[in-house]
């Protein structure tokens, strides 16, 4: 099999709009998205197995124990983690897989798999981030304050990412992201097996 997918990690401040961007990328272009496990309670409209696999703390700790997660992190008092099996299966089938995860987890993935690309989505300003968090209306003021404080800390680590994409409008951002993901897919680092196959093909002409 010479066709191999890429794994791209997508992070961004909470409220940067990455969930919406990832949703559009899946719908429009067919990217596979890893569904995470979490101990957070479901928000209204969230579905088991679609938004997240909702777990108890004990269940989550068992997954850690069994080495079923690519990475996991604690974020604002809850565990979040990426189940391994699905991601690996998709990549082997040639699909590009998006992992929407926060920064600690992203850096852990990069450490384990250096070939993975890290993409950071940011709103155009801090003020705009605050506006979007307030508009979402699903979080209490205290949680919003925590998320803003967290974003401020995360600013220092943007440098660790391979690509930084501004989200100043959904359609434009989705189109930039698709272009970027295509470029990563066709980079020589991801086409080693194809190059090898072509070289072998030519052996018959010696
Ligand atoms: P939320 O509670 O808003 O759904 O997610 C909170 C944060 O957890 C977001 O930044 C989201 O990207 C991150 N997150 C979601 N799934 C995972 C995961 O599997 N691993 C890690 N490390 N972070 C995750």
Describe this structure in words.
By secondary structure, the protein is an alpha/beta fold. It folds into two domains: 1-31 and 96-206, Rossmann fold; 35-95, Guanylate Kinase phosphate binding domain. It contains eight helices and nine strands. The chain has helices at residues 18-29, 57-65, 84-92, 103-112, 126-136, 141-154, 170-185, 192-203, and strands at residues 7-12, 32-33, 37-38, 53-54, 69-75, 78-83, 97-100, 117-122, 163-166. The strands form two sheets. The protein has a five-stranded parallel beta sheet with strand order 2-7-1-8-9. α1 packs across α7 (170-185). The longest helix has 16 residues, at 170-185. The chain is globular and about 70 Å long. The mean pLDDT is 93. It binds guanosine-5'-monophosphate. Guanosine-5'-monophosphate is lined by residues 14, 36, 40, 71-73, 75, 80-82, 100-102, 104-105.
């Amino acid at each position: 099999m010479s066709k191999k997918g890429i794994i791209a990690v997508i992070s961004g401040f909470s409220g940067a709009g990455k969930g919406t961007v990832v949703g559009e990328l899946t719908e429009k272009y067919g990217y596979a998205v890893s569904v995470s496990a979490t101990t957070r309670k479901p928000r209204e409209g969230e579905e088991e197995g679609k938004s997240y696999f909702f777990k108890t703390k004990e269940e989550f700790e068992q997954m850690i124990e069994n080495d079923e997660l690519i990475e996991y992190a604690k974020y604002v008092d809850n565990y979040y983690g990426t189940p391994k099996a699905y991601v690996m299966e998709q990549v082997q089938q040639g699909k590009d897989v998006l992992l929407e995860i926060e920064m600690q987890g992203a850096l852990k993935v990069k450490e384990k798999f250096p070939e993975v690309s890290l993409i950071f989505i940011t709103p155009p300003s801090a003020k705009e981030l605050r506006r979007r968090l307030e508009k979402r209306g699903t979080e209490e003021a205290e949680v919003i304050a925590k998320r803003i404080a967290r974003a401020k800390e995360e600013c220092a680590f943007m440098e660790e990412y391979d690509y930084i994409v501004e989200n100043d409008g959904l359609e434009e951002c989705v189109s930039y992201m698709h272009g970027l993901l295509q470029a990563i897919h066709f980079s020589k680092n991801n086409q080693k097996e194809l190059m090898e196959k072509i070289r072998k093909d030519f052996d018959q002409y010696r």
